[in-house]
């Protein structure tokens, strides 16, 4: 590197070449002034000049190649290290840094490391260049150089101060970025909830608020940068002014001749680069250092005492004695610590005392199934080799056979992100099948039977978990809310408030008459009727067989523009900046360039004084005029650059604001279907990498491009002025140059697009890993996931590495072209030596020496601008996705609508996408008759998986729009209303209890429309008052990302509180009590009956007993209504409903029939 650097350095003229060139410039000038030198000497100088330049180019590119590859390796290493850390980071540490922050680490911060490594050697090569340049200047101008040096030294503290201020601003900027990404990530994960509750405006305002703060900080940073740019653009002019002024002032004998002036100017040009680049490099390193510090906590294990400290002496003892083949059930109410116990056994919790010892391999089935975006088969095999007989046996035991027949590709069907195209029950069965297939020694089953139909639950217990199942010889620990399974387990552990209250067999605990026997007595009446099973529904997604039509994958490959970036994309960016800013910015830079050329022409004229006043006294007025004008033009340049950067800063912040607002606005308005088929990594990528590019990279490359473009024009103008014949050479050079540049830009641009697209899988895989951490760690599959992460990073590198190579390809060709410009300008000077004045020859050659890297830089900047403008193209792509209906339409419903809660479906048909089959196609006249009269009643909706139950609720909220027919609520066609008017007047308690990070109050009432008293009242009704009252911060208690610091039961109760707060006339329960124990289920059902007695309640049947007291039950099958009547009538009919009830162990519905008849009478 040292050898290289003596020959070269980054953009400007590498020192040895410079030294030789500086010698050459001097020799060429003396050749044109001294007519006695032979002509062949001039030709020799010209040839030497091109040889030096060629060597320099070769050294320079070799050095760059090595630096860029090293930068790429560092970035890759950081991404892999962050991923590896995420796999082993403790749960406490995970709370410290959010998913958004970690994604930022992998995207923006790793990229910054890459950029700094590319130029790291400049840390010592810049000072080396400065030292050498000063040494040569001393030879030319003597002690006068010290004046210039003094000016440079004065710059250092100013730069230090600016760098320090920039650092603080940058820290603040990263904090806002992380905060914004965290909220965005949560919004994308809970987008369905936002739509159902019509909460998008509240979250949009939150993001916009943070974004405004972020832009404020960016503006501050841009202003600081403009000040430092001003100082450093003035620096070379001030340094040369000080030096020349002192040189001519100290001694009247000192006359500035062409040789001295232009040798000095080319040396000052060398100084220009290290002086400008060193502070930028230091600032970049400060930034990088900052990110390593800011995120250092992500890289350490955090050991804090966790809140769930278990008192489990009996449990420890129990597990030590737990012989292989035992089935142990863990029971207890919501929040008693059942899931925490499973976490503790996996080592996922901090142990305050004692230890857990698990012998053999472990398989985990978590309470919320974790499904990968892979084929169904890969989800079950989970990295184990395929053994066909074992695989088939597992599918059969887990009741997945019928589902596979429905799926288009059987077990090769691709499952969407988070299992989006499977129902809740299917996800849970896949999760159980994964565990069963793994043939582990110990099975930890966290309530896997709560999300499946009752008859399926029975089947799974008999075939998989129970004493006769395929896992009968394994150690199984089953957390369950189901009373009916308990007689068949070997041992039962009862938990109460984090302590083991009882342990024993079913019979012995019953006889003991303790907490367990009370628990049983409460539910004795339930036990005969049912167990934890539930009817599953599809999750707002077409049954997977809808996909067969086009034979397409569910998750389409990310689209990618090809060919040249359309000019309209540039115009869009300039329009977002504001035409005023853009035009003024260009004008100011143009004037600055004119000042720069003017200064050099003035200098060339000044050097001719040496001949005019040869052997005469140089008049003082002339000297003062020369110095004054030279200095004034230098300062003018600085001022114009300062104005230009300020204009650009304001313009680019305008553009950033507008583009981000458009993107956010549109993403919140696209239909749910988009999120079902688009991995969240893609959308995150738009908000992380692409917005980062719009904020920081585009303004930089835009400014550099304008400066390079004007610089090239200026250089050619000066050379043509000196040697007009040079215009003849420009044309062929320009043609070659144009073709090289087009060829390169096309490849480079496409490689950058490939780079962007191949980044999304890295983030998607990372997001998936973080959400399934406990499962990956339980199975011990960290290495396999690390390998997969390496694989997706490698895929990304396949487009990064060729891009680096393409840059070198370009640079070599362009530098050779530039070297030809130098050669021809020297050659023409030799040919026309008789008609030229020495000032202009010096000027034209020193300019020509500069043109090489300016040309190279222009193409590089053209390419970088095109590459970066792709971010605008990608952001625009997501701002043009078709929206769902308007949030508010011209037709507004009355204030108290719906007052009666009267529902009516007319010939209602629906499909998920235009090309797919109908999902609901029988909701026709049957409903017209029956539902016309229904209001203030409870309707239970039941049906097997995929019957269309959830599709019905999705239609009520217009998550999917009608293909035909309509739905009327109180006589108003819902299709005529704005989505927010509709959604805010209906209430749903959804299947998955989604919470957002923030306070408890924000999760209940994001628009802050209710008083604290009302909120405490609903917390009391939803049985959370005691819990929230016991928290230190009460309603302002912080909820962590995804509500992870609350149990699933508590989250479900919070969702009930949301519904109670809204008090609308129509309530939809979508498997609302799937994750809670019988006691909590009972509480919820009672509260709903009492508080919503005046409403129409549609219950998608989960535990069948909860809809036996409905006034009507609707049985759906394959999107058609097959039965509709009161539960007792349907039961006696012995049709679909009867067979489902029998499967659930319900033998009679008489006990509740009276209640339902009474309800019927009041309703009618």
UniProtKB/TrEMBL annotation:
Record bears the keyword Transcription regulation: no
EC number: 7.6.2.3
Assigned GO CC terms: apical plasma membrane; lytic vacuole; vacuolar membrane
CDD domains: ABC_6TM_MRP1_2_3_6_D1_like, ABC_6TM_MRP1_2_3_6_D2_like, ABCC_MRP_domain1, ABCC_MRP_domain2
Domain ABC transmembrane type-1 residue range list: 25-287, 586-867
Domain ABC transporter as annotated: residue spans: 296-522, 903-1143
SUPFAM superfamilies: ABC transporter transmembrane region, P-loop containing nucleoside triphosphate hydrolases
Enzyme superclass (EC): translocase
Entries under Pfam families matching the protein: ABC_membrane, ABC_tran
One annotated GO molecular function: ATP binding
Listed InterPro entries: AAA+_ATPase, ABC1_TM_dom, ABC1_TM_sf, ABC_transporter-like_ATP-bd, ABC_transporter-like_CS, ABC_transporter_C-like, P-loop_NTPase
Keyword annotations of the record: ATP-binding, Membrane, Nucleotide-binding, Repeat, Translocase, Transmembrane, Transmembrane helix, Transport, Vacuole
Subcellular location: Vacuole membrane
Catalytic reaction(s) noted: leukotriene C4(in) + ATP + H2O = leukotriene C4(out) + ADP + phosphate + H(+)
Lineage: superkingdom: Eukaryota
Transmembrane region(s): 43-64, 116-139, 145-165, 221-250, 270-289, 576-597, 627-649, 707-740
Membrane topology reported for the UniProt record: Multi-pass membrane protein
PANTHER family, sorted: ATP-BINDING CASSETTE SUB-FAMILY C, ATP-BINDING CASSETTE SUB-FAMILY C MEMBER 2
Family: Belongs to the ABC transporter superfamily. ABCC family. Conjugate transporter (TC 3.A.1.208) subfamily.
Name of protein: ABC-type glutathione-S-conjugate transporter
Lineage: Eukaryota, Metazoa, Chordata, Craniata, Vertebrata
